[in-house]
Design a protein that fits this description.
It is built from twelve helices and eight strands. The chain is of the alpha/beta class. It starts with 9 loop residues before the first strand and ends in a 14-residue tail after the last helix.
C-alpha cells in the first residue's frame, strides 16, 4: 500500500492482519518524522450497533456479495495516487482478507462534484441495476461546500434510504470529511447532525467519518497534512486505507456477531 502523493508519501511497515490487525504507516515526508501513524479510532466510531442482515445472510450461505458505493469525489478517490487506493478499492481488499472463501465485489459509482439530488437522479442506473446487498452512501460534503440551503436534505436522505430498503439491501451512510475547507463552512455541523438524525430515524448504520477524522486531528494530534491531500479537502492514500480498514472491521463485526447482541441504541448527534 504505497502512496505517491507529492510530499505525503506513506510506506507500509506492518502488514494488515487477516481479521483485526492495526495498520501502521510511516509518513516519510510529513510533520511526524519521528513516529508512525496507527490507523485507530475509538470503539464507538469503529463499530455498528445495528446488524447487517442482508450481508450476514449472503455470507452465511456462501452466496456472492455485491457492495455498491455511491458518493462524490471522496468516493471516486480524489487525492488518491491510483484507483486502487480509493476507499472502495481498499475496502474490497479488507473484506477479502476477512472473508477469504467468499466472493465479494465492491462497485464504485462515486462521481466528483455530485450532490444528493444528482445521486438520486442516477439511482436506478448506479444502484438498482447492480442488485446490491449493501449500499455505502457518502453524502453531504458538496452541499455544504456550495452553501446550499439544508431545509430539504432530510427528505432527500429519507427518499434514498427508502429506495435502498425496497431493494432489500443493507445501507451504511458515510458523512462528510473533517477537513479545513469543510470546517470553514458554517453549516457543516448542521449537515452532520441531519445525517445522523436520518440514520437514527431509518434505523440504519452510520460510518461517522467526520468524527473519526476529528479524532485523528484532535485526540491523536495528527496534522491535517498527514491524512489530507495538499488541497485541504480530499483524503490521501493513508486516510482512504484507514477508513477502509475501520469500515471493513465494522462490517465484519455487524455481519458475524449473534443477532441477539445487535441492539440499536441512538447514534449521538454532534
Amino acid at each position: 500500500m504505497m502512496a505517491l502523493i507529492e510530499d505525503y508519501r506513506f510506506l507500509t511497515v506492518l502488514s494488515i492482519a487477516a481479521v483485526a490487525g492495526t495498520a501502521t504507516f510511516v509518513p516519510a515526508h510529513s510533520q511526524l518524522p519521528a513516529k508512525t501513524i496507527s490507523c485507530t479510532a475509538p470503539a464507538g466510531l469503529s463499530h455498528f450497533a445495528r446488524p447487517l442482515n442482508r450481508v450476514a445472510s449472503r455470507l452465511a450461505v456462501g452466496e456472492p456479495l455485491t457492495i455498491v458505493a455511491i458518493g462524490s469525489s471522496s468516493t471516486a478517490g480524489a487525492g488518491a495516487s491510483s484507483v486502487a487506493a480509493n476507499y472502495p478499492s481498499r475496502l474490497a481488499v479488507e473484506l477479502k482478507q476477512r472473508f477469504p472463501l467468499r466472493t465479494i465485489k465492491v462497485i464504485n459509482h462515486g462521481i466528483g462534484g455530485t450532490e444528493m439530488g444528482d445521486m438520486l437522479a442516477k439511482f436506478d442506473q448506479d444502484v438498482t441495476a447492480e442488485k446490491p446487498d449493501l449500499v455505502l452512501w457518502q453524502l453531504g460534503t458538496n452541499s455544504v461546500l456550495r452553501d446550499r440551503a439544508l431545509n430539504g436534505v432530510g427528505g432527500r436522505i429519507d427518499n434514498g434510504l427508502s429506495r435502498i430498503k425496497k431493494l432489500g439491501a443493507d445501507v451504511i451512510l458515510v458523512n462528510p470529511q473533517y477537513a479545513p475547507k469543510v470546517l470553514d463552512k458554517s453549516e457543516t455541523e448542521h449537515m452532520v447532525q441531519i445525517i445522523s438524525a436520518a440514520a437514527n430515524q431509518a434505523n440504519v448504520n452510520l460510518f461517522d467519518r467526520f468524527a473519526v477524522m476529528r479524532h485523528w486531528r484532535m485526540a491523536e494530534n495528527i496534522p491535517f497534512s498527514a491524512f489530507l491531500s495538499p488541497d485541504g479537502l480530499h483524503m490521501n492514500d493513508w486516510s482512504y486505507a484507514c477508513v477502509a480498514k475501520l469500515l471493513g472491521g465494522a462490517i465484519f463485526d455487524a455481519a458475524t456477531r449473534p443477532a441477539m447482541t445487535a441492539t440499536a441504541p441512538t447514534v449521538p448527534a454532534h
